Give the backbone structure.
Amino acid sequence: MLTRRHFIATTAALFSAPIATPVLAKQWPNESQKAAWDAEVTPENFDLETSNPWGHPQRYLPTRVFAKDGLTPGDIHVDAVAKYLYHIEEGGTAMRFGVAIGRGDLYEPGVYTIRRKVEWPHWTPTQNMIAREPDTYAQFADGQEPGPRNALGSRAIYLYVGDRDTYLRIHGTPQPWSIGSRASSGCVRMIMAHINALYPKVKLGSTAHLYSAEDSVTSRDNSAYVDPRFEGIY
């Protein structure tokens, strides 16, 4: 259902007008295995906008909202304050999802190009992650095979700057309770059932805007996020 709220553009970047070798899993799942895993991470009788077995606040459930004029359909915008991801649609709307972002200074605001997408991806922590938290990540130094407990979950959208893989991802998470927080090592986390719905609509070559806390919208109350430089709530 369409809310009576505009998605607020937040920086001048909204108005201004390359690929690394992928890591290979030892064994990629076939279509039957992927379908079985999708069923495992999708709630029974799943409805994108209302199903909530995770017990999240209502505002973190996927919601279609109005988008500010001039935003490019297909692009993604991530608000670091509200913990929202917006996927801009044709016709002046956007689909809004609750997300988790990087904790502390691990979140990296910027403008990225989506160069790769993978269903049920393999995952390998970076050397920095292993050095920073060896007890958590060293066990996966040779990679973690695809599956519902994989750190990237069911889908991964890979963010690049030019031809350089930034190792930042928008991905599913086996920790759905982290949505709405700063919890990751830099990536944008989504509930697996939610990213499964978003994934086929995201096109390679689209742009992902990850805003800093300063450039994101500010909270006027617990449910309304408004930047006074732009349009308010209807």
User: Anything to note?
Assistant: The helical segments are 31-41, 127-132, 134-137, 192-198.
